[in-house]
Amino acid sequence: MTSASSADSLQSSLGYRFKVLALIEEALTHSSLVNEQKTASPQHNERLEFLGDAVLSLVMSEYLASALPQSSEGTLSKLKAKLVSEASLAQVARRLGLGEHLKLGRGEDRSKGREKDSLLADALEAVLAAVHLDGGFDASRKVTRHIFAEELTNIAAQQEQPGAGDYKTQFQEWCQKRHDTLPRYATVRETGPDHQKLFEVELSIQGEVVGVGSGRSKKEAEQQAAKQALRQVGT
């Protein structure tokens, strides 16, 4: 069973209190644990994962159609695919600390299952389904928008200002026009545990460092370095 303090911590992160705690128990139980027990075991989360996928898709579709009324169906589909991708879900799950709440079999636990994108993404879908069954669609919509707030804000901002967030492309174009060369990115430092690493990247032109950036991924760090470089050259 999930401890009371663990359940309270997760519910606080979700911004939702369960009326039926058995639902969150099921959402956090991986099939590896059930398969190992081979007895009267608790239900694992694959059933909820199936429902959660549909709930998430509907919430995201509803949000994008409302927030971006001028966007085409093709654009909305691409944006939704990005939001509901395994990488996106795993990122949100890590932000919630979902890995530490998972109930895994010993083998899956030993193989660092709590850090796997696939397990985290599946568990997050299962949790959203648990919210949906416990509190209805309004509750699942509210929780989904709450935990994906950062991703939804970034998507909306980028659509309002196309290209504004792609500092790497802007700086590359500047380099080619001004120096007829391409910038070079180098990762100079990695800190923190595997599931929460911080990368530091240096951006240089012809051997001269013109920007430094940090982020939770190399891509994010490179964007920040390019942003700093753009400010430095005054574009």
Describe this protein's structure.
By secondary structure, the chain is mainly alpha-helical. It folds into two domains: 4-160, Ribonuclease III domain (Ribonuclease iii, N-terminal Endonuclease Domain, Chain A); 167-233, Double Stranded RNA Binding Domain. 62% of the residues lie in helices and 10% in strands. It contains twelve helices and three strands; from the N terminus they run αααααααααααβββα. The protein has helices spanning 4-14, 21-27, 31-37, 46-67, 73-83, 86-96, 106-110, 117-135, 137-147, 149-160, 167-179, 218-233; strands at residues 184-191, 198-205, 208-215. Strands 1-2-3 form a three-stranded antiparallel β-sheet, with helices on one face. Strand 1 and strand 2 form a beta hairpin. It is globular, with a radius of gyration of 21 Å.
Helix fraction bin: 55-70%
Number of strands: 3
CATH fold naming of the largest domain:
Ribonuclease iii, N-terminal Endonuclease Domain, Chain A
Quaternary state of this entry equals single chain
Radius of gyration, taken over Cα atoms and rounded to an integer in Å: 21 Å
- Tell me, what's the shape? globular
Number of domains: 2
Write the layout of secondary structure elements.
Elements: H1 4-14, H2 21-27, H3 31-37, H4 46-67, H5 73-83, H6 86-96, H7 106-110, H8 117-135, H9 137-147, H10 149-160, H11 167-179, E1 184-191, E2 198-205, E3 208-215, H12 218-233
Antiparallel strand pairs: 1-2, 2-3
